[in-house]
Amino acid sequence: MYSYQDYRIFQDLCVLLDHGDRLVLRAFHLSPLQYHLLLLLDREEGWRLIDLSERLLCERSTVTRLVDALEREGLVCRVANQEDRRSQRVTLTEEGLRRRDLARAALEKTIQQRLDAFSPAEQRQLIEMHRRLRAVLLAEIERSQE
């Protein structure tokens, strides 16, 4: 049975992972949230702001500010939504795609270095445990939205 102190280890781990990701992404002038937004986008179809806010679990105003900043840097653009003229979709620019892919490669290298502390069997076990915990957390979110 876990105690609150044990749970704090998970919280500390999340903070440390986030900090490490921030250090890597800083070289690409991206925050973790900006990076995650870029990961969702492509050059063709794009996402509506409301859909991005739901997927990123943040307020629409936060997503609007993120998109504004990324648009000023030439990484994303807003395009007319062919399905609903009242809204727009956000897509990646060529530069956004390039920077996202460079940042992803740097993060993947860092993640591999972090996971190298474990044997391949331990890595598989750790990832499987995290997948199960993620499923529990996603179910919690879905129940809270009902």
From TrEMBL:
Domain HTH marR-type: 1-135
Matching PROSITE patterns: HTH_MARR_1 (PS01117), HTH_MARR_2 (PS50995)
Highest taxon listed in the record's lineage: Bacteria
Keywords tagged on the record: DNA-binding, Transcription, Transcription regulation
Biological process according to GO: response to stress
Pfam families xrefs: MarR
Keyword DNA-binding: yes
Gene Ontology terms for molecular function: DNA binding; DNA-binding transcription factor activity
Designated name of the protein: MarR family transcriptional regulator
Source organism of the structure: Thermosporothrix hazakensis
Record lineage: Bacteria, Bacillati, Chloroflexota, Ktedonobacteria, Ktedonobacterales
